[in-house]
Amino acid sequence: MELYSLIVSLFLAIGLSAACGFRIFIPPLTYGLLYKAELVQLGQDWSWIGEDWVIAVLSLAAILEIFGNLIPWIDNLLDVLATPTSIMAGTILASSCLSDFSPGLQWILSVSSGVLITGGFQLATVSIRGMSSVFTGGLINPIFSIVEDLISLGITITILFFPIIGIIVIIIISLLIRKLYLFIRNRRKKK
């Protein structure tokens, strides 16, 4: 495998894992729809993601996830329940991008990406939403939810079509999340 393909595969794995840290079902649904439209490639073992029944199930799950996260306090419960599922989704999508690697390396990188990247973003958003719930009574949480939906979709599309730009976007989002987290935490300490 040439170096550029290796780097793009790693960027795709990182990007899709990051997107799953914001929403579980938007990244695989988007990937499946783009694959079905023949706009992106997948390894033959992963073509199932573009099947009609998979897209239907992912669509229903994405709709439930989006609307469930718009309800204050329910969104906190969903966040706790979603954390292991998001890590699993990030791992699976990362693996789909790394299918040209040897199986051992593919799964080591996939699990690392799922746990570290998906888990990291998921825990950051859970913390911010939790602090927002305490600080505002959950009134601002729907705004956070809509922003998370858009970030997940934006990262997914950007990383699939422009992997290098996608990685830059992920780094910027990481820095902004860190800044927001510190801002909310510092305001909470002052009260």
What is the gist of this entry?
The protein is mostly helical and 191 residues long.
Question: How would you characterize this protein structure?
Answer:
The chain is mostly helical and about 190 residues long. The chain has one domain. About 80% of the residues lie in helices and about 0% in strands. The longest helix is centred in the middle third of the chain and has 34 residues. The N and C termini lie far apart (about 55 Å). The mean pLDDT is about 90.
Task: Give the overall form.
Answer: globular
Number of strands: 0
| Oligomer category | single chain
**Helix proportion range:** over 70%
Number of domains in the coordinates? Answer: 1
- Major sheet attributes: none
Total DSSP helices: 7
Distance between the amino and carboxyl termini: 56 Å
- Which band does the percent of strand residues land in? under 5%
Rounded mean pLDDT is: 90
Given the helix and strand composition, which structural class is it?
A: mainly alpha
- Strand/helix succession: HHHHHHH
- What does the radius of gyration come to? 17 Å
Q: Which residues sit in consecutive blocks of at least 5 with pLDDT less than 50?
A: none
